[in-house]
Design a protein that fits this description.
Order of helices and strands: HHEEEEEH
Shape: elongated
CATH class of the largest domain: Few Secondary Structures
Oligomer: single chain
CATH topology of the largest domain: HU Protein, Chain A
Distance between the termini: 20 Å
Number of helices: 3
Strand content: 25-35%
Helix content: 25-40%
CATH superfamily of the largest domain: IHF-like DNA-binding proteins
Structural class: alpha+beta
CATH architecture of the largest domain: Irregular
């Protein structure tokens, strides 16, 4: 499973997802790898096609949203102290579903 170094957050990768799918599907490794790769690529493609905002809802898991940020005309560079203009951009936001929220609250 995921490696955990002192003082760092546990990070899960595609291999962890593949291992979970292998346990559930009991098939060939190649099959799970293709399924996970295809799933992740599909999510990436859908989010990259966003025009300019989008929402990807995966039932019982959560929602990925692409949102626009407002420009910041008076942001300050902390090193030099000068005011700079930061243009608006798009960012991705994830909102967990009910099951994940309940799990996180139980802690």
């Amino acid at each position: 499973m995921a490696k955990l170094e002192a003082g760092k957050t546990k990070t899960y990768t595609r291999k962890d997802i593949e291992a979970k799918m292998y346990d559930k599907l009991i098939g060939k490794k190649l099959t799970e790898k293709l399924i996970v790769d295809c799933f992740i690529e599909s999510i990436r493609e859908v989010l990259m096609q966003a025009d300019p905002v989008a929402r990807l809802e995966i039932r019982d898991f959560g929602v990925f949203e692409i949102k626009k940020t407002r420009p910041k005309p008076k942001a300050r560079n902390l090193k030099t102290g000068e005011f700079i203009y930061v243009p608006g951009r798009r960012k991705i936001h994830f909102k967990p579903g009910k099951l994940l929220k309940q799990f996180l609250k139980e802690g």
